[in-house]
Recover the amino acids of this structure.
């Protein structure tokens, strides 16, 4: 008779699986709640303490950490010395281990979790058994996932055991599982201890989707979500309609959500290729849409749209007239959803915006041979801390416009220049190798929309006064920029020459 050790927190599908094992001559060893669950299902089990001759101690902290368990898992059946030792020590081999771990992740996800509760949900015996069984996969089948029960049961029913190939794959899966489990524990304890830059970085993500392709059609790609995903994140959005999101869709949608997070009033963000092409805000969502559209009616074609209010019918009808890739909103009116669903490929996503101000996770960016990790740029600035460095003083309306433009330029690829008024972006210059070219692009895009209410924002300081001169000559009345250049005086003097306002923030918002 073969032996299986079964001890799980997730009991989904367990009874049929164990019955299949019993039907094919497996004796079942079990522990605690799992043993009670199987006994109630009419499945005869053997308690771990009956195998070890040693009772559970320390409130269940020690029960399977015993040579009679781990020897039964690690003993190599093809090595005569191991077999002889097992006989001498009266160790009966265990052929299958079905274990999943204490719910540590579910515990720490509780908003009011107690530290002591988190600690008690760190599994020790479970990972140890999984690692022992996985190390000896040539002889032992290790099972962690109820999704694998059917295939394993079918193989045992057919051959009395699993194939070596299956055991190898299951062992690798088990090591991935314990590694992810330990990574969460390390992350939690590091956070609790206030460790900001650990000497070893352990991250864990769960496969969310296999992409049709990556950035280009010849590249394979996958989408993984953080094991402790936040609510205000694309990975937490519910897709209501449309085809599968692509790799580029996900990057663009993430960039658009970061922008939308900046605004409280009804706002519409239109984004294309990781840069905003239009941002509009107003008292009504439909008006905010009109403003975002007016900002760049050409680039919005095929763009990603984020609206921070429930989508109404009037706004939906206007969006329906365009080809758009994605629309994300906190909700959709029933009739508005019906209008947008007429386009079968349009992706419609619903996301909880109420959690947009929760503490964000760090950003991780891959580079050849490593990772860059940084805090997200979510600094909440107070315009009262800004400095007016020119003779001309800003009006209240200009300050409002400058703050709007500042929020927009923060999320535009550097070198970044945004021309705006208080309601919408007028022109955006992004990603140029020098700032004067970005300025020219932004001003050219704004064109006749520039009037005496137009302002300009620069994500970093002006290295020369040419951008200030160009902006002033084309009707810009106020400028916001970080300051900090050794040639700030030149830019300030140029602003004074044209009688325009310049405000410095002291904060740079480069986005590479």
């Amino acid at each position: 008779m073969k032996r299986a050790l079964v001890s799980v927190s997730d009991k989904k599908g367990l009874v049929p699986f164990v019955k299949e094992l019993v039907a094919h001559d497996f004796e079942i060893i079990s522990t605690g709640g799992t043993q009670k669950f199987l006994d109630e299902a009419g499945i005869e089990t053997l308690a771990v303490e009956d195998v070890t001759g040693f009772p559970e101690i320390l409130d269940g902290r020690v029960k399977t950490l015993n040579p009679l368990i781990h020897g039964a898992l690690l003993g190599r059946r093809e090595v005569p010395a191991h077999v002889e030792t097992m006989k001498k020590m009266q160790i009966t081999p265990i052929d299958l281990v079905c274990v999943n771990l204490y719910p540590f992740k579910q515990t720490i996800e509780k908003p009011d979790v107690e530290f002591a509760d988190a600690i008690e949900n760190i599994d020790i015996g479970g990972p140890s058994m999984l690692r022992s069984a996985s190390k000896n996969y040539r002889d032992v089948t290790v099972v962690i996932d109820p999704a694998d029960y059917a295939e394993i049961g079918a193989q045992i029913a057919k051959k009395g055991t699993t194939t070596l190939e299956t055991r190898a794959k299951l062992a690798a899966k088990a090591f991935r599982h314990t590694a992810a489990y330990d990574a969460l524990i390390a992350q939690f304890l590091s956070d609790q201890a206030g460790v900001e830059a650990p000497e070893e970085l352990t991250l864990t993500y769960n496969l969310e989707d296999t992409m049709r392709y990556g950035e280009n059609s010849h590249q394979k790609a996958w989408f993984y979500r953080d094991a402790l995903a936040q609510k205000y994140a694309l990975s937490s959005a519910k897709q209501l309609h449309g085809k599968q999101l692509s790799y580029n869709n996900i990057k663009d949608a993430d960039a658009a959500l970061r922008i939308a997070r900046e605004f409280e009033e009804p706002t519409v963000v239109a984004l294309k290729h990781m840069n905003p092409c239009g941002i509009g805000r107003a008292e009504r969502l439909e008006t905010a849409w009109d403003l975002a559209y007016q900002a760049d009616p050409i680039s919005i074609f095929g763009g990603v749209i984020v609206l921070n209010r429930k989508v109404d019918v009037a706004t939906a009808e206007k969006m329906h007239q365009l080809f758009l890739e994605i629309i994300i909103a906190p909700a959709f009116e029933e009739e508005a959803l019906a209008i947008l669903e007429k386009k079968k490929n349009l992706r419609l996503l619903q996301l909880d915006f109420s959690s947009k101000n929760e503490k964000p996770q760090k950003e991780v960016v891959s580079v050849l041979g490593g990772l860059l990790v940084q805090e997200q740029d979510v600094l909440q600035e107070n315009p009262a801390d800004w400095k007016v460095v020119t003779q001309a003083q800003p009006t209240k309306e200009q300050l409002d416009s400058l703050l709007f433009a500042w929020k927009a330029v923060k999320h535009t690829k550097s070198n970044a220049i945004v021309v705006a008024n208080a309601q919408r972006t007028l022109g955006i210059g992004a990603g140029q190798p020098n700032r004067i070219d970005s300025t020219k692009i932004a001003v050219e895009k704004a064109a006749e929309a520039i009037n005496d209410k137009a302002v300009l924002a620069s994500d970093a300081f002006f290295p020369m006064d040419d951008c200030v001169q160009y902006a002033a000559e084309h009707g810009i009345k106020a400028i916001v920029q970080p300051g900090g250049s050794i040639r700030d005086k030149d830019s300030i003097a140029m602003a004074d020459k044209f009688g325009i306002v310049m405000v410095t923030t002291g904060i740079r918002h480069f986005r590479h």
